[in-house]
């Protein structure tokens, strides 16, 4: 723990250096390119400030984040229940494993299009589509967690008759925490990308909608400005929420 | 106050699923044992003959046998089980581990704290178990068993892989705890010295299927139990050829 803290400043310095190098390379390429098709960091930055000042940036990112959050929570909840059930009950696993493989390999685009066709071009369809894309991943990860539950501790819980709720809260969930973290990490990365596609195809707000509008007029600066802003937001979630949470979950480890 | 229940164990048949192509193992066949309320019974026998399985059947963890295990006096006795490994929740502190089987009331919390204090662990209440030595973890496991005020205490080699001094301290602690909070004890061990020191009845078991070879009453005084010579003499007299 202490070691990790000590390494942090150097880690940050390297990250900063790396990002600066990327910016320099970007500027270098932009200098020799058509500024309309490949704008430099300055131009993209200006567009970012412009969008921020008129509020459109925050509104669209807010709308997209809300969709990410809704579908993410839905997918985590359903995927966790399915995953644990499959991990604990062999019969269910045998029955539904092929289904899981089918849904894992179903292209995101197919799910989105079908949801819009069957449920209509509305918010519920958008969120359902994203959740369905994510549920199989969560289920597969949590199934591993369910299989790896410590039998000794479950026996202890049963002998001491601590009841279902306490068993879940004190014995099972802490063991699943690393698997949750894994599912959340990969989930966050996957879900926001799919939300953009959903917005592009059937919503009239959000980052995905802005990008599709910019695409129609080849406004590359706006596309890059929104993409960078969203990446920054997702990184903030990682730094400000996920990492502190993970440290708290792991404080019992030696 | 625990009611201290006696036990009547009658296992008609218990077998173990074969490993690979090995034949079905018959662990118990017509096995009978009656235990008086408040007795401290040691089940003595070599490793792997089914002693732990017997405790698991008594505790209800292993319902897969034919026969019956009846508790005298109570329908569902409170069972404190001290497993061979401590089986503490590593992500909960010592106090939280003790509180696990208790109601979440201030009174229960007090009881748990007092119990830990009585076992000399006041300064480890908020420590995570993996930061403790094995001896201390065993002590926490013992505290958890006593916390529920058990009618029956099942103990599965609770002193193995400890150095002699630590094991001795734990034995003293167990005797002291039992004096304050009497319970019927079934104590599994392969160490006859352990058995003589602790038990007032020793059941010597042999395997395939498990049979009672000897049933010895131990009438040693507290002082004699702590005297190595007396323990060795008792061992030579009653248990020698069975090992």
Describe the structure using short key phrases:
heterodimer; A: 254 residues; mainly alpha; MetI-like fold; 10 helices; 86% helix; globular; B: 243 residues; alpha/beta; 6-stranded mixed beta sheet; 8 helices; 9 strands; 34% helix
What does this structure look like?
The complex is a heterodimer of chains A (254) and B (243). The model of chain A has no long low-confidence stretch (mean pLDDT 91). Helices cover 86% and strands 0% of the residues of chain A. Chain A is mainly α. Chain B has eight helices and nine strands. Chain B is 34% helix and 25% strand. In chain B, β8 (201-206) and β9 form a beta hairpin. Chain B has a domain at 89-148. The model of chain B has no long low-confidence stretch (mean pLDDT 88). Chain B has helices at residues 51-59, 94-99, 106-118, 134-147, 164-180, 192-198, 222-225, 228-239; strands at 7-16, 25-35, 40-44, 66-71, 79-82, 152-156, 184-189, 201-206, 211-217. Chain B is of the alpha/beta class. The chains are: A mainly alpha (254), B alpha/beta (243).
